[in-house]
């Protein structure tokens, strides 16, 4: 049966060969235009309906994407389904989802909530080459083209293909004609300053629209006798629209791009066809316009069908043309389900290959789907040590070979991170703090790192921590930390302002049992003094030392507004305490403390239910302890001001409902805007003999919240059955 099919295809190809020699070669030029690029698909639909063959394809930016897919051999219907089904909005962010990060990196991001990338090395500050690193965009391209191999020449595709990029160093056009088609597409669309440039063959490449947004000269050089050019470039903005620096910069970019297109259009002859869909009012960055742009592309092609029909061939010849494309595409599409025989690591970082291979976790001897590949790439990228993670495939007689390439962060290896927090209940006292950390990586063998932290504001912190992996897989580690801190509790109607200044040292041995959690055993020592913000009062000294065990588990997708996952922290300490006589009736005390904090979320179509539970207790001899716990503040007994209640025993639970109405607001930005409400109950007690569960305070809140570049922002109202109530505004980290 296979022999008969093959013979049939050969006969068809022979027929096509004679036919092709007797007609002019047709080249298709697809210009750049962002989200309007789906108009190209509309045109392709009409070309296929009218039996118009395409012999060469050249594209710039989004045109390189659509053209590359078509040149690979995808049907137009497949390209439409893939392009319109991709989450293009995700390409605007390269930040790793919280749930994918390792446990310690989750906690670090929660604390340093301002999303900027700033590094320091060789005596200078460094930033990435673009606002976006391009990882998300690359993975969209990877999913679009499946696990297609690299090519020695793009002439080997079902349709000979070229992608146009620009050399940022020389401002000259670069025509990409071989290698990874994903890299070619990405380089062609890398907007300077927005998306990081792509290195290919020693050249730093960016968006091809800068030098040639409609590469008619390239298609003619490939051998096209007749050109069909599709122009989806943007028109110039009106004077009234130039109201900001960004709009002026966009206008300059449009002028530059349009000038290159005008020069290329001058190369068109009478037998060439220029299509200009009516897409001027559509945005280049709003991907929701794609269905409309597709229809407009189809309408433009239909409007010029009389000219296009002159290029049509017979049904027999067109079927033979399609068969030829399928036969050429079959060479790489048939290889996709073959098993993996070898994995090569092209590691351009100081991360050990063993760690990369362990996390990549692709099994030899098995087939690899594009979905499984996407997950594997995500796992490596989630190590948060790379600027980019890419893969290429080569096909051998034995099977498929994967080359996994990692690129170290260009702004490393030392990094600054920043955090900000503002909380107010619109009374006289507001809580403000700023945080900064400086992380030095690879400071010792096996990837040791040194973290230094500073917090200024309502509370203060100065800390230095050294983290040393103890095995090649980085599962076992040691951690040493020293710090000076000042904790404060606001003045309330029933107490003066309290302050605790202390020095603390910690030494721990830990096991990172997965990206989800850790177990630590360690020793801790602390010395400090307590004081009241009241004239005539003394400071009261204390010392505390002992051991601890910590268990942490964290899969929450967001610490601010979670929709899925759980976070659990359990900590037990065995301590020896020494107090000033003024503080306690027992100068030397033995204390065992236990604390548990849990937060879990489950979301269904914009509706999310969050559970919160917190419990703390102490077993000691004294009637006093410095090891206190607090309640008060947003979702922590709402209605009370921040940390208004202090004690050594605590019980607290809450149920929160929140609804994401951000995308439901007409004209909304698409950002999540949460409307939430909570029911809460809890209390703290100063001694075990004072615990009365009928003393539990019930409270609740209603709030609006969203994520900003400074972290979460929440505005709401809290109330409690005890009579306490408050309006509150919080910007920055809450937890």
From TrEMBL:
CDD domains hit by this protein: Pat_PNPLA6_PNPLA7_NTE1_like
One of the record's GO cellular component terms: outer membrane
GO molecular function: hydrolase activity
Annotated keywords: Hydrolase, Lipid degradation, Lipid metabolism, Signal
Motif annotated as DGA/G, chain positions: 207-209
Protein's UniProt name: Patatin-like phospholipase family protein
Active site: 61, 207
Species this protein is from: Colwellia psychrerythraea (strain 34H / ATCC BAA-681) (Vibrio psychroerythus)
UniProt short sequence motif GXGXXG, positions renumbered to this chain: 32-37
Positions of the PNPLA domain: 28-220
Biological process terms in GO annotation: lipid catabolic process
Pfam families linked to this entry: Patatin, POTRA
Sequence motif GXSXG, residues: 59-63
Signal peptide: 1-19
InterPro entries cross-referenced by the UniProt entry: Acyl_Trfase/lysoPLipase, BamA/TamA_POTRA, NTE, PNPLA_dom
């Amino acid at each position: 049966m296979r022999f008969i099919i093959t013979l049939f295809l050969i006969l068809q190809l022979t027929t096509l060969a004679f036919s092709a020699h007797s007609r002019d070669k047709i080249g298709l030029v697809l210009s750049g235009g962002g989200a309007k690029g789906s108009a190209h698909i509309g045109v392709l639909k009409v070309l296929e309906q009218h039996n118009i063959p395409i012999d060469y394809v050249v594209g710039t930016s989004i045109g390189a994407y659509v053209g590359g897919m078509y040149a690979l051999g995808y049907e137009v219907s497949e390209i439409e389904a893939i392009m319109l089904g991709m989450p293009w909005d995700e390409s605007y962010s390269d930040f790793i989802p919280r749930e994918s990060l390792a446990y310690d990196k989750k906690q670090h991001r929660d604390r340093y909530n301002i999303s900027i990338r700033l590094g320091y090395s060789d005596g200078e500050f460094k930033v990435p080459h673009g606002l976006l690193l391009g990882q998300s965009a690359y993975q969209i391209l990877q999913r679009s083209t499946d696990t297609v191999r690299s090519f020695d020449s793009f002439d080997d595709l079902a349709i000979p293909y070229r992608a146009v990029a620009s050399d940022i160093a020389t401002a000259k056009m670069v025509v990409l004609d071989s290698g990874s088609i994903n890299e070619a597409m990405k380089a062609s669309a890398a907007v300077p300053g927005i998306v990081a440039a792509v290195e290919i063959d020693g050249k730093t490449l960016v968006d091809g629209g800068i030098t040639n947004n409609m590469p008619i000269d390239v298609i003619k050089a490939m051998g096209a006798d007749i050109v069909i050019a599709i122009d989806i470039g943007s028109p110039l903005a009106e004077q009234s629209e130039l109201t900001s620096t960004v709009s002026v910069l966009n206008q300059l970019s449009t002028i530059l791009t349009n000038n290159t297109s005008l020069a290329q259009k001058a190369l068109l002859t009478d037998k060439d066809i220029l299509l200009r869909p009516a897409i001027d009012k559509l945005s280049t960055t709003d991907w929701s316009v794609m269905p409309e742009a597709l229809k407009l592309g189809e309408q433009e092609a239909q409007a010029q069908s009389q000219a296009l029909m002159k290029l049509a061939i017979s049904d027999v010849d067109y079927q033979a043309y399609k068969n030829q494309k399928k036969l050429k595409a079959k060479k790489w599409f048939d290889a996709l389900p073959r098993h993996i025989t070898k994995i090569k690591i092209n590691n351009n970082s100081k991360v050990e290959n063993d760690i990369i291979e362990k996390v990549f976790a692709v099994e030899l001897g098995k087939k690899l789907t594009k979905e499984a590949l996407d997950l594997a790439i995500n796992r490596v990228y989630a190590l948060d040590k790379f600027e980019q993670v890419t893969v290429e495939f080569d096909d051998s007689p034995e099977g498929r070979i994967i080359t996994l390439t990692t690129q170290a962060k260009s702004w490393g290896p030392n990094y600054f991170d920043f955090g900000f927090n503002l909380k107010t209940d619109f009374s006289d006292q507001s809580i403000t703090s700023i945080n900064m950390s400086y992380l030095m990586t690879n400071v010792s063998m096996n990837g040791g790192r040194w973290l230094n932290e500073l917090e200024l504001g309502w509370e203060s912190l100065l800390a230095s921590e050294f983290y040393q992996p103890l095995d090649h897989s980085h599962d076992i580690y040691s951690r040493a930390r020293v710090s000076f801190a000042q904790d404060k509790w606001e003045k309330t109607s029933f107490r003066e302002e309290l302050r605790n200044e202390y020095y603390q040292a910690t030494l721990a041995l830990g096991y990172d049992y997965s990206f989800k959690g850790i177990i630590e055993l360690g020793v801790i020592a602390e010395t400090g003094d307590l004081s009241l913000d009241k004239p005539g009062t003394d400071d009261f000294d204390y010392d505390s030392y002992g051991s601890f065990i910590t268990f942490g588990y964290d899969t929450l997708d967001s610490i601010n507004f979670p929709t899925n996952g759980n976070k659990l922290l359990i900590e037990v300490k065995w301590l020896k305490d020494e107090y000033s006589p003024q503080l306690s009736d027992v100068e030397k005390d033995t204390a065992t403390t236990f604390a548990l904090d849990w937060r879990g979320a489950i979301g269904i179509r914009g509706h999310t239910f969050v559970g919160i539970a917190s419990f703390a207790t102490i077993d000691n001899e004294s009637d006093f302890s410095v090891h206190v716990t607090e309640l008060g503040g947003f979702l922590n007994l709402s209605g009370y001001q921040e940390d208004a209640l202090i004690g050594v025993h605590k019980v607290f639970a809450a149920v929160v409902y929140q609804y994401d109405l951000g995308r439901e607001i007409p004209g909304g930005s698409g950002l999540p805007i949460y409307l939430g409400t909570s029911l809460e109950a809890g209390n703290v007690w100063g001694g075990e003999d004072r615990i009365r569960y009928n003393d539990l305070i019930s409270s609740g809140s209603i709030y609006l919240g969203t994520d900003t570049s400074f972290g979460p922002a929440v505005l709401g109202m809290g109330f409690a059955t005890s009579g306490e109530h408050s309006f509150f505004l919080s910007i920055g980290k809450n937890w």
